[in-house]
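thoughts on these tokens:
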Amino acid sequence: MTRPTLRPHLCLLPLALLAATATPAAPIQLPTQTVLGATDDAHELSLPLARSTLFLDQQPATHLGANLSESLQRVPGLLALNRQNYAQDVQISSRGFGARAQFGVRGVRLLQDGIPLTMPDGQGQPGLFDLDNLYRIEVLRGPLSSLYGNASGGIIQGFSSEGSYFPTLENRSAIGSDGLWRSRLKYGGQHGNLNVAANLSRLETDGYRDHSDTRRDMANLRLGWDIDDASSLTLLFNALDQPDTQDPLGLTADALRADRQQAVAQAERFDTRKSIRHQQLGLNYRRRLANDDEITVMVYGGERDVQQFLAFTGNSLYSGGGVIELDRRFGGSEVGWQRDTELFKLPVTLAAGLSWDYQGEDRKGFANQFGRKGSLQRDEFNRVESREAYLISTWQLAPRWSLTAGARYSKVKFDSDDSYFIDGQDDSGSVRYDQTSPALGLSYQWTPEISLYGAIGQGFETPTAQELAYRPSGSGLNFDLQPSKANNAELGFKLRRARTQVDVAVFYTRVDDEIVTAEPQLNTDRSTYANAAKSTRQGIELSIQQQLADNLTGYLAYTWLDARFDRYRNSNGEDLAGNRLPGVPRHSLYAELAWQPADGFSTAIEMQSLSQRYANDTNSADAPGYAAFNWRANYRRQLGNWQLEPFARIDNLTDREYIGSLIVNGAGARYYEPAPERNWLLGVAVQYRWQ
């Protein structure tokens, strides 16, 4: 069978080489982002959704800069946890969506500069964000975020920084606990008409736990070109190389008490590890027409190769192997249109667009011969294709009233061609999901500084390729899985004053066909998935930022979230109605007090607290609540064209033992991933600017 490729789309990408003569392009935003993710505070105040913006150039210089969790812990409603396991990436959930994901991020859509970091199946990789080269991260939550497509928890979108007008070269290096070392080299500058921003980095660590060595290399390049006064072109390239990253696996409660730093015995026996190689290229084109219409075109493509050694042999019939090899090619395109006009004598902004995304992967499974690749146990080619169309409008109903309404139609198709017939059966098959996601929001500008809003909408999540990959018994894809559907409602309050910023959101979500972890696959510890009948999420989000003095700032982000199964009977026949959703704390709090002048000495105290989290659907195992305190300090000094900035931080000041993250419903009750005790980071940043 002929397998489709991305060559017709990738062949367009070399057009970016035309960027050899140009002025810098502003960060490209697709029409949906232009409508829903404005950058100016005046517009943001009228948006009927919860939106948090993090400017990374204002974030502490003391962050390692390697994990998205370092910044996202400041966002209410969002749980971003460093698993201390680079083989499995950061764990992110939004309003409870994505808390049970065991691989990557699901339920939350990831984008960078308009280019998806979430595949069309709904699974994203937060490790692909190059934080060194981002200047802003936006997090959108609420009913209107469903207008972005296959995600119910919201959107995380990063925007790459431009090179400074004067060429600048920067090195930032740090060492820390557990053999941690990270260094980056960053360059940015304006060269005639070409704006360049490039970054290279390497991270190495022995890991907090045994069997958790990691090496990760990243590269990021942004080229911007203003073709003329009306059009611009942006080229983005990202690369990640992470060979043989060791995976210590989750611990049982008994193993945790015995030695929290140990690796699971099977991890050592089967040498559990993961190798990742990822490359991605994207092109954004924007043009403003004579009538002030705006057209955007985006095209991207890439490849991702993964090899993972699991904690079992996988040589039994239908097991699919204990070594997974994925050879993935992906890409897509989007065309968008936006107009500011007048309809029915009312000012209105209209945005519409079409998108197409594709991923195709060779999936092979081999027996795990105690850390060596054995006989072939699985061979198939899987495709996921997504086609979407959207229309969004924002109406100015009256001087103080605005209405945002829109809908997105999504068609997602999974297809599998089985080439492994030794087991005596053909597991080929396909399934298609169709969904329309409508949303409506109303905003009232009470005063120039205060706005109120309400919104309703419906989102959906398809099963990811990983969730479809295995059945509880037998081989082939689990086509019985159905998408989950979420009906969302939200009320919000926003205050913007010179020294005070307050956001409050109250939300309620009802989910049908929630995708949950089912019984382990026969003869393996591999997770499989099923649909639960109904669940609800209701909660309150609060964030306060207060300028207490000229250089003294206080910040607080608090979330109360009650997430429960309304109707659910598991594979053992147990009625779990009323149980809490695992991995979701009822209370979460982040607080910070920072002394941060423009130059000189800066310091801050941080606190993060989570309440109890259940580890499984039966609520029979849990992680106790905790509060952890961190300290950071840096000193910035300008010496002519040079800037010197030494920094230091200490995490978990009180040396508390607590559970950092959970593997929800982990096989063999291996739920727990402990956080480190007191640990430190010490580094220096050196910058030179030609001017």
